[in-house]
Amino acid sequence: MANEVVKLKRGPKATMPAIEAGSILVATDTGEAYVDDTPEKRVQIKDSTKLPTAGGTMTGPINMNSQKVTGLPTPTAAGDGANKKYVDDQVASAKTAGTNAANSAAANVASQAQAGTADIITVTRSTSQTAPKNRDTVSHVAALKSGSAGTAYGPSGNSNLSAGGTFLVPQVTVDRYGHVTAATHRTLTLPKNITIPHEPAIPVMTTATAAATASKSVTNTQDAVTTNDIFAVLFTAGNSVASITLVIPSSGSFAVTGVESLPANSIGLFKVTGTTAATYLGCMNRKYSGSGPISISGSTIGMATAGSAGSAGPSSNSTLAFGDSFTVPQVTTDAYGRVTAKKNVTITLPEAPPSITYSGKAPISVSGGVISHAAYTTRDGGPTANASPGFGGSFVVPQVTSDATGHVTGVTNRTITLPAAPTQVTYTAGTGISISGTKISHAAYTAKSGGPTANASPGFGSSFTVPQISSDATGHVTGVTNRTITLPAAKVTGTVADSAVQFRNIVVVPKGTDPNTVSCPVGTIICVKES
Fold it and tell me: How far apart are CA 531 and CA 525, in angstroms?
């Protein structure tokens, strides 16, 4: 190989001469060295900004650009880098220590729990690891199993009831502590008056047939009865048969079902419904008697007293502390659900538990009576403003990293991209539907109306309209035709006085008695025997 000349050049980096093959250049101001390897290539052979493979000190941060740093040894000094295995071992050790401490604390708390009366009072010891700790909670077990709490049962106000009226009575179940465990309403219905639809001068007949005999021979000294007539029968021997036949001279035999048991001298009221049938309307002179705490005197229904009026239980709201007492009502009831006795039972809460000394564990510290949390770096992530991304749009969602104690140690924004707009769908119109551009319309139908145009109260023999409606397969009304409904003519054509429409009772007196001398309430029908 022929000898070649190597030129050595030096000077400031900014004024380096042009490339000349075989030249070595030294920048006197930066300490860098270069060699011109070829007429087109200059190579740097010394760079003060790069570290050697051993030793050296960094003067700024390094961006690894998602590349790993491998082969790290186990750290021995506070400033050493830690490998993954060392970090995993430390985390596992911390978790085990924390679990053991929590189990020990829970066992200590559980051993101090106080007991209550299981079926009505419960005492629960908190095992929370955050303040307040070790607190007993005394609770009253919900006693109401049926019904609604806070609901008033029974009549909501005073009322004057008429015949056939109803009223509410509360049914209440009480446990051994006097608590209401079930509440509901029971509806009581008063007996109805009997209304006579036409002239009340009804015939009163008599039967002396035995109570257990179904065929009743009836004595009638008045006109024969026909369909829709109402008549009364005096059962001198009573009745104990539900289905009877009333054999009435000059009128026929009438089968009647649903007749109740009647005591002797009861008056039953009947209505002829056909040539051989009649309907039982009820007993006209029934008498009621009281039972249990209920008493009847004349027209007054009363209830015997049970116990004395008063109250039991706390007289006001209170906030209790450990060792305090409060009262609970104990109530005794009779077979009718009435409170017959009541008294206060005292419940005393357990004394305050002994004080506990706490010690801190990272990241918690305890100093005197102050429990503090170690400071963590503030971190933000996620969208910084409201947005409405469309098809193909994107938004950020924070990815959160936390340590073993649940604290956030890192937040990284992740981009979520929505799918592109879907392919447009073309619709076609079916029966009754029309489509124009993006507008879907319902086909027009002719407006129709029918039936009565106003409220009405038609009488006997009058008529009113009822609409007959036609519709197509899609449920639309296609036609309305008015149909005329005519009521039957009136049965009674004469005038009936208001006082004749309703009566309270029928009194049968011997022949020859002057009706004006009979003492009875207003509305009573007085019947005079002919023999």
Answer: 18
Residues in the chain: 531
CA nearest neighbour of 137 among 146, 128, 148: 128
Distance CA 269, CA 261 (A): 14
Q: Name residue, tokens 């963590």.
A: 376
CA distances for 30 relative to 22, 52, 151, 280, 518, angstroms: 22, 17, 93, 129, 144
First to last CA, the chain: 172
Q: Is the pLDDT of residue 260 over 90?
A: yes
* pTM of this structure: 0.26
Residue 207 near residue 216 (C-beta atoms within 8 A): yes
Which H helix or E strand runs over 231?
A: strand 230-235
Sign of CA dihedral 221, 226, 232, 237: positive
Q: How many CA atoms lie within 13 A of 231 on its CB side?
A: 27
Looking at this protein, which amino acid is placed at residue 121? I
Neighbours of 216 (CB within 10 A): 26
pLDDT, tens only, 381-418 = 889 899 999 888 998 899 888 887 888 888 899 999 98
> Which candidate, 461, 463, 467, places its Cα nearest to that of 483?
467
